[in-house]
Write a structure and sequence with these properties.
The chain has helices spanning 6-32, 42-63, 67-80. The protein is mostly helical and 85 residues long. The longest helix is centred in the N-terminal third of the chain and has 27 residues, at 6-32. It is flat, with a radius of gyration of 15 Å. The mean pLDDT is 93. This is TetR family transcriptional regulator C-terminal domain-containing protein.
Amino acid sequence: MSDSNPRLSELIGQVFDNWTGLLAEVLRHAHDAGELKLSVSPEVLAKHIVATIEGGIMMSRLSKNGDDLRDCLNSLRVILGIETK
């Protein structure tokens, strides 16, 4: 979609840059507070999180089943060490 419209491509890129930038800040803060162990940079982990969420959304839309997104989100919880209730 955005390949044929350079302006749209630029806007979408800015959205993803902003999203990953804000997420990297949160991850850095959590790491500095001792709440999160990082084996990669906050920026790399933020990109991984965004890619996992976006991939889960796409897979769920294609399969018309929310289980794919839930599975992706659950894998992020494991990676981040977040316990679920």
